[in-house]
Amino acid sequence: MSQVIDQAQRDKVIVRTSLVGIGANVLLAAFKAAVGLISSSIAVILDAVNNLSDALSSVITVIGAKLASRKPDKKHPLGHGRVEYLSATIVSAIVLYAGITALVESIKKIISPEKPSYTVVSLIIIAAAIAAKLLLGRYVKAQGKAVKSGALEASGQDALFDAIVSSSVLASALIYIAWGVSLEAYVGVLIAVLIIKAGVEMLLENVDDILGHRADAEDAHAVKQALTSEPEVIGAYDLFINNYGPNRNYASVHLELRDTMTVAELDVLSRRLEQQVYEKTGIFLTGISVYSYNTGSDEAAKLRDAVKEKVLTHPWALQVHGFFVDTEAKQMRFDVVLSFDISAKEALDVLYGELKKDFSQYQIHINPDVDLTD
Questions:
Q1: SS3 readout for 126-176
Q2: Rounded to two decimals, what is the model's pTM?
Q3: In this structure, are 30 and 177 located in the same domain?
Q4: Is residue 1 part of a domain?
Q5: Phi and psi angles of residue 249, each rounded to the nearest 5 degrees, phi first
Q6: By the 8 A CB rule, do 125 and 28 touch?
Q7: Do residues 147 and 264 both lie within one domain?
Q8: Tell me, what's the pLDDT at 50?
Q9: What percent of the chain has pLDDT over 90?
Q10: Among 9-13, 281-285, 323-327, where is mean pLDDT lowest?
Q11: Which residues does residue 332 pair with via DSSP β-bridges, in sequence order?
C-alpha cells in the first residue's frame, strides 16, 4: 500500500544512493577492465562494460530524479514526475545496447579465440568485485524499497544479478586454470543474453508505466476500504487512479449514497473522505461522483434485486451498481461492469433486449463500465 513519503527527502535518498552506485561501479569497471586486458579475458572485459553501463544508468537516474522533482508550472500543473519513467526508458535502452554489443564481441571471440592468462591478483580482484556487488545490491535495493523507487529497486536487483554474472566469470577462470578449458567467450555470450533479457524486461515495464496500466490492487483496496469505512457510504465504485510519476497518484470515484442526503451533508462527507484517503494511502482523491440509492421503497428494492439477478446470469457481466429507479416516472438506470471478453455494444444489445421484455413499462438506461481495479 502507498505511504505518504516526503518528496524532498525521497529525492535526496535517490540521488545519494545513485552517487554511491556510480562511484562503486566506476571503480569496479576500472579494475575489471585492467584485469580483462592483462589476462585477455573477453568475459572479464564484458563484465567491466556491464559495470560501466550501470554507472551510466545511475547518472541518468540522478538526472531523471532532479528533473522529476521540479515544481508544477502552468504548462505541467500536475508536476514533472513522469520524467522518471522517461529516464528509466533511456536506462533500459543503454542496458539493451550494452547487451547486444557484448553478444557481438563474444561471438567474434568464439570464431577467433584467444587464450586467457590469469594471475592470482586478477582472481582476487574478481572475487572482491563479487563481494562489493553483493553489498551494493543489498544497499541500493533496501533504499529503493524505503522510498518506493522502482528505479533504485531495479538497480539493486541488477547489482545482485551482476554478482552472479561475475561469479560465473570467476568460475570459468578457475576451470581454465585447473583443466585448460577456455569457456571465456561462451560465458560472454551467456552474460550478453542475460543483459539483453534484463534490458527488454526493463523497457517493457517502463512502456507500461508511460502507457498507463491497471492500478495496484493493494492501493485500490486501501482506497475503497477508507471510503466504505464511513457509515454514509453504501458502496464505492469506478475507482480510477491516474499516475503522474512515483508517489504522485490522483483518484476519482463513484460513491453510492442514500437519496435523502443533502448537498451540504455531501460537501462535509467528501472533504472528510479526501483527507482520510490521503492520510492512509498518499493518494489524492480529486473527484467524487454520486449514485443515488433508493431508500424507503420496497418496490425499488425488489426491482434492484430482480435486475441484478437477470444481468449477472451472463459471465461477462461482472457487477451491477449505481442502481436507481423512479417508480412514478417509470425510469431505471444502473451501471454494469463488463469483462474484456465482450464489446460494450454487444453486451448492451443483449441486456436491453432481455430487460425490456421483463420490465416493459420502464424506460431503461444502462451505462457500461470497465473493470479498472479488481
A1: HHHHHHHHHHHHHHHHHHHHHCCCHHHHHHHHHHHHHHHHHHHHHHHHHHH
A2: 0.67
A3: yes
A4: no
A5: -115, 135
A6: no
A7: no
A8: 74
A9: 37
A10: 9-13
A11: 325, 364
Pairing of strands 331-338, 317-326: antiparallel
Q: Work out the pLDDT band at 372, boundaries 50, 70, 90.
A: low
Cell of 187: 560465458
pLDDT of 1 strictly over 70: no
Confidence category of residue 2, pLDDT binned at 50, 70, 90: very low
**Helix (H, G, I), strand (E, B), or coil: what is residue 325?**
strand
DSSP state of 71: P
Can you tell me whether residue 279 is helix, strand or coil? helix
CATH number for position 233: 3.30.70.1350
Per DSSP, the residues of 231-296 read TTEEEEEEEEEEESSTT-EEEEEEEEEETT--HHHHHHHHHHHHHHHHHHHS-EEEEEEEEEE--S
Count how many residues are written for the chain: 374
Instruction: Identify whether 337 is part of a domain.
Output: yes
Question: Tens digit of pLDDT for each residue in 265-310?
Answer: 999 999 999 999 999 998 999 999 999 999 888 899 999 999 999 9
235 and 133 both lie in a single domain: no
SS3 sequence of 85-116: HHHHHHHHHHHHHHHHHHHHHHHHHHHCCCCC
Domain end point (choices 275, 290, 305)? 290
| Predicted confidence band of residue 374 (pLDDT cuts 50, 70, 90) | low
Say which CATH number the domain at 166 has: 1.20.1510.10
Domain that holds residue 352: 294-374
Average pLDDT over residues 250-269: 95
Q: Please state the separation of Cα 33 from the chain's center in Å.
A: 35
Among 179, 211, 243, identify where a domain stops.
211
The pLDDT of residue 373: 63
Judgement on whether residues 254 and 156 belong to the same structural domain of the protein: no
The sheet carrying 249-258 orders its strands as: 233-243, 249-258, 284-293
Number of domains making up the chain: 3
Question: What cell was used for 57?
Answer: 544508468
Residue type, 357: K
Q: In sequence order, which ranges of the chain are alpha helices (DSSP H)?
A: 7-39, 42-68, 83-111, 120-146, 150-179, 184-211, 217-228, 263-281, 298-311, 344-358
Between the alpha carbon of residue 234 and those of residues 177, 224, 229, the distances in Å are: 73, 11, 9
With a CB cutoff of 8 Å and minimum separation 6, the contacts of 4 are 278, 279, 282
